[in-house]
Write a structure and sequence with these properties.
mainly alpha, about 0% strand
């Protein structure tokens, strides 16, 4: 549980409520920066664990062959989509726990966290069962055929049993973030990443399981991480509320969690549809551009989740500020996290640009695929400052509980993106010698046009006051 627990009684405000600490007024930039970084830096390690899993899997599978790497592109896209659709399990829990703590109701906050974990386990079991059954159809729908499709189905079916663990990690991490504990998820994520690398090497090459070993190893690690974080949350709840506290799920809480999470589910659905349509478009460009897209997409995910650490800090701090009715503090958090997001994006983009070719070489020995991947890396390097701003704006509005707006903004952004994707399908160059150009076209559409559409919508919202609902009241 967090190093700084909730208040000792429901009526006593927590010590770390924004704006409540002596010497840290809302306009103290250095104090606010310290609090942002104290949350963001540990969150960084936890956030990059999932894309790090994808990077590790991509590097290990990529050396099996281009067909295996292309198959991993399709399968991992579906897997990440399935997990991403339920990211509200973390986001809504972070926002609700933070707001309730800020308002002085720690018992209600912890109860909401327990219900969120139960919901994650139930949803994960259903998604795993359905996904295993429909895996061949799903891969065909994305454009997979022949050997590529066979590898994709193998990876998907061996990795899906870990889905309950993946979603439990989201929910438990959301509880801890709401309590301003980003260190525990960091420890679990670090151990998980190391275990994933070692286990996958053993299963892929030691046991000779090929791409199936990569999926099985990742599933086992996710289940272990989920069990670890659940144990941490349960121990903390019993320490705070007593050992005889009921850990059974509440039907009211489960139903409320689904209802509260629906807007963010819809928002994430639009984002995942954009990603799926992008992968489907990559499949029409040829096997090499599809394989190169996996490399670029893995690095994009790694960098994006790194930038999202600032969004996590914004979520937790904004939720507490609004719960404590500290409007000025919420505005200060918005301004400072936007500055940090743009700056961090510029730094990450610079590193990607400098290391484009060496990074591409880590994933594939194929010269053509490597050159195409490097071209795409240059595009995402240029897009990183924009991405940093977009992710922070998302985090602020999620922390404010402004899910309904984000759902509508997601629909609008997807509608704005579709013409660019259509242009890539129609006019992007194809064939031998044009692989790098095709990847550049694809990532200009996604990394620039789509992200710009998201950024415009959320920035205009942040300029107003509609997202600032104070106290424990919900958005309507």
């Amino acid at each position: 549980m967090p190093d700084r627990p909730p208040a000792s009684s429901p009526d006593e405000p927590p010590d770390d409520t924004p704006g409540s600490s002596p010497g840290e007024p809302t306009d103290d930039r250095s104090g606010l920066d310290r609090r942002i970084l104290a949350l963001a830096l540990p969150a960084l390690g936890a956030l990059i664990a999932e894309p790090l899993f994808v990077l590790i899997d991509s590097a290990l599978v990529g050396h099996l062959g281009v067909a295996e790497l292309a198959g991993l592109t399709l399968a991992s896209t579906l897997l990440v989509t399935a997990v991403g659709l339920f990211v509200f399990l973390a986001y809504t829990t972070t926002a609700s726990v933070g707001r309730l703590i800020g308002a002085g109701h720690p018992e209600r906050a912890l109860r909401a966290g327990i219900d969120g974990i139960w919901l994650a386990l139930a949803v994960g079991a259903v998604v795993a069962a359905v996904g295993i059954a429909v895996a061949p159809w799903a891969i065909r729908t994305l454009g997979g055929t022949g050997e590529v499709a066979a590898h994709a189905v193998t990876y998907l079916r061996t990795s899906l049993p870990g889905m309950p663990g993946m979603l439990a990690v989201l929910a438990a991490t959301g509880v801890l973030r709401g309590l301003l504990d980003t260190r525990t998820p960091l420890v679990v994520a670090t151990v998980g990443a190391v275990a994933n690398a070692g286990l996958n090497v053993l299963l892929i090459y030691g046991f000779g399981w090929g791409i199936g070993g990569s999926g099985a190893g990742t599933a086992l690690v996710h289940l272990g991480m989920g069990a670890w974080l659940i144990a941490v949350v349960v121990r903390g709840v019993r320490e705070r509320l007593g050992r005889d506290v009921s850990l059974r799920p509440s039907l009211t809480g489960l139903g409320g969690g689904l209802l509260d999470g629906l807007p963010l589910f819809l928002r994430t659905l639009t984002l995942r549809l954009a990603i799926l349509l992008t992968v489907a478009t990559a499949a029409t460009l040829g096997e090499v551009p599809l394989a190169a897209h996996q490399v670029v997409n893995a690095l994009w995910g790694f960098a994006a989740f790194a930038l999202d650490a600032l969004a996590i800090a914004a979520q937790a701090l904004v939720g507490r500020a609004l719960g404590a009715s500290a409007e000025g503090e919420a505005r200060s958090i918005l301004r400072r996290t936007l500055t940090w997001g743009a700056g961090a994006g510029a730094v990450i983009g610079g590193v990607l640009a400098l290391l484009a070719h060496p990074l591409a070489s880590l994933f594939t020995p194929d010269d053509v695929a490597r050159s195409a991947a490097a071209a795409g890396i240059y595009v995402i390097a240029a897009a990183m400052p924009l991405a940093g701003v977009v992710f922070v704006l998302d985090g602020v509005l999620i922390g404010a509980g402004d899910g309904r707006f984000l759902a509508w903004a997601g629909l609008a952004s997807l509608a704005a993106y579709l013409p660019f994707l259509w242009a890539v399908r129609q006019w992007a160059p194809r064939g031998p010698g044009a692989e790098a150009e095709a990847v550049v076209w694809l990532w200009l559409a996604f990394g620039v046009a789509f992200m710009l559409a998201r950024g415009i919508a959320t920035y205009l919202r942040s300029r107003g006051s509609g997202w600032m609902v104070l106290g424990t009241r919900e958005h309507h």
